[in-house]
Amino acid sequence: MPGRKTDVKDCDWIAQLLQYGLLRPSFVPDRPQRELRDLTRQRSQLASEQSRVSNRIHKTLEDANIKLSSVATDILGVSGQEMIRALIAGQEDPEQLAELARRRLRNKLPELREALRGHLSEHHRFMLRQLMDHLTYLDRQIAAFEQRIEELMRPFQEPMRRMMTMPGVGLRVAQNVLAEISVDMSRFPTDQHLASWAAMCPGNRESAGKRKSGHTNHGNRWLRTALVQAAWAASHSKNTYLSAQYRRLAGRRGKKRAIVAVGHTMLVMIYHMLKDGVDYHELGHDYLDKLQPRRLTHYLVKRLESLGHEVILRSVDPAA
Question: Does the structure show a pLDDT above 90 at 50?
């Protein structure tokens, strides 16, 4: 065939670099970390399956015209599971089913009686029985994996404690993050290298001097999922730097882009906490406002003037 494709030339160039030892090796964790990764990833898969089974139970109840989800926040809570077990056993009286409610759910007994009036057939009972048994099995499996993960995480109690001081980072998120990146940050020269490896930064697509789409790459989807979950939780925290960053970006760039940006910030913080052995330091919700006070003042004045107000600024001594 006449001519040569560019990918063939690229392969030749990469092979030549490898021959001279000019290629940097990929990040391949050691065996203990790979085993810990297997455990945390399988636990995540089981948790996803648990959510799918819960949705199937909800669908079966809706098919039987039982609107338990319209009254109970969690249909698989203690009260909800007892009602479902009673339905499987053949109990159909809404009055007796509603009496199984506990705690705050008892304040909704009239609504609960109406929600439990349905038409449960033998097919629905069979489906609910199998789904509830599957849910119980998944609970046992997740508990077994959590016990094994806790045993392997004992040497990393101090890094986990540091990470959990950050808003939005709980025990499971800290375990998942440490299982993916470990505690040795010497593998990543800078926090930017770590963010690029995890694909928690804008993509670098440029052609003919023009910047193309900035969509993030695929990267490590397990680490990315953990960081996004933590970012969502941090965005709902009060009077924190991360929540202020989310609100600052969500209005201009959208919620999803803002969440990825917050997740990137959290990963950078985790990098320095693990590398330097320091605890999380809260900057405060007004940290971004203090960086450029004149710019913020100009923006607020323009907003007020657009609403038809005349703004007269007067400096005030903070010590007064």
Answer: yes
Give Cβ neighbours of residue 292 (< 8 Å, ≥ 6 apart). none
CB 98 within 8 A of CB 112: yes
Name the band, by pLDDT with cuts 50, 70 and 90, for residue 6: low
**CA-wise closest residue to 273 among 171, 195, 160, 113:** 160
Of 149, 159, 169, 156, the closest CA to residue 228 belongs to: 169
Summarised one tens digit per residue, pLDDT across range 211-260 is 666 677 777 889 999 999 999 999 999 989 999 999 989 988 889 889 99
Backbone conformation region of residue 240, classed left if phi is above 0, alpha if psi is from -120 to 50, else beta: beta
Is a pLDDT exceeding 70 seen at residue 320? no
CATH 1.10.287 domain range(s) in the chain: 31-152
In CATH terms, 31-152 corresponds, of 3.30.70, 1.25.40, 1.20.140, 1.10.287, to: 1.10.287
Q: Which residues contact 23 (CB under 8 A, 6 or more apart)?
A: 14, 17
Give yes or no for a contact between 164 and 171, defined as CB atoms under 8 angstroms apart: yes
